[in-house]
Amino acid sequence: MYRPEIKVLDCTIRDGGLINDHLFDDRLVRAVYQACSAAGVDYIELGYRASKKYFTAGKFGETKFLEEAFVRRMIDGIESKSKLSAMVDIGRVDAEDIPLKKDSVVDLMRVACYVKDIDKAIALVKQCADKGYETTVNIMAVSTALVPDLEEGLKQLAECPLKAVYVVDSFGAMFSEQIHFLTNLYKGILNPKGIEVGIHCHNNQQLGFANTIEAVRKGANYLDATIYGIGRAAGNCPLELLLAFLKNPKFKLDPILEIIEKEFIPLRQQIEWGYMIPDMITGILNQHPRSAMEMRSGKGSKRFVELYRSLLNDGELA
Question: Which of 4, 178, 187, 242 has the CA that lies 20 to 30 A from 270?
Fold first, then answer.
């Protein structure tokens, strides 16, 4: 049995780009697009749509900005029924830098925001929808949000032209109980308005895949994943596990296994991602992974216990 209304979104290049400043070569981007297309993934997210004036010139690769000519070059000649997605961050993109849908091969604009910025997200969602795009919202760091604030924001989003609103476990801090609570909360407010619930999990506590399944059990229908779990720090729910779990015959596992073996096993020798103790520490303490990332890069504390005690003390002081 499978639920045909479920949509899978691959954000390998977008989330993976957070590790290496989006400096993937064109060959890998095209290979990911081809593999996900062959696997039957519903949406493929090739990066961010950001405005260059907000970033240091020359620091980031092209998947940070997803200019139209670049996207067309990446998909040229590859047969695909998948839709294309781009993420837009509040404060990092100007609406005038987003072309009309009729002039773009991108189908979906995903607006990322924190609870405090939902009003700004609503404005950007409406601008994207007016330009002809499908739209969703990712509410980041929801594990730190106050429930009354979240409820108020969801009620506002329920009146917007949205396909889905995502529960995002940005810090990899949540367990099944929180996933159940939040998925039900989102559903109760959004589903009556025809808006689906999405889930985007990080793997700090080795629960990215498990928590995604728990959200599915409670009715989430938009599911994020990445090939081989690639993503910032601890990474994300692995696409290969998710496709195998869903049992939908439209999804093909073979292309993902092939690209893992050919591209991602070697890539992991060059850039690091996946579960490690520093990320576990920030996850269990429900804190941003920046200190874990510093430790992994050699810039921060050299000992696990020092990192744990310093973050624990900071939390107690806060």
Answer: 242
Q: How far apart are the first and last CA of the chain?
A: 47
Helix axes 304-317, 277-284, angle to 10 degrees: 20
| Closest among 28, 203, 288 to 12, alpha carbons compared | 28
How many other CB atoms are found less than 10 A from the CB of residue 309? Answer: 13
| Spatial CA neighbour of 37 closest among 85, 106, 83 | 83
pLDDT at 301: 60
pLDDT tens across 278-314, in order?
A: 999 999 999 998 888 888 777 666 689 988 988 988 7
CA 76 to CA 45: how far, in whole Å?
Answer: 16
Residue with the two structure tokens 């303490």: 285
Q: Convert the pLDDT of each residue in 132-163 to its tens digit.
A: 999 999 999 999 999 999 999 999 999 999 99
81-95 exposure pattern, b = at least 16 Cβ within 10 A, e = fewer: ebbbbbbbbbebbee
In this structure, the number of other CB atoms found within 10 A of the CB of residue 239 comes to: 31
Distance CA 38, CA 36 (A): 5
Domains present along the chain, CATH in parentheses: 7-267 (3.20.20.70), 277-317 (no CATH)
**Residues 6+ away with beta carbon under 8 Å from 145:** 114, 115, 139
Sign of the Cα torsion 62, 65, 69, 75 reads: positive
Provide the token pair at 148.
Answer: 């009354």
pLDDT at 316 over 60: no
Q: Across the chain, where does the E strand assignment appear?
A: 7-10, 43-48, 83-89, 108-113, 134-139, 164-169, 196-201, 222-225
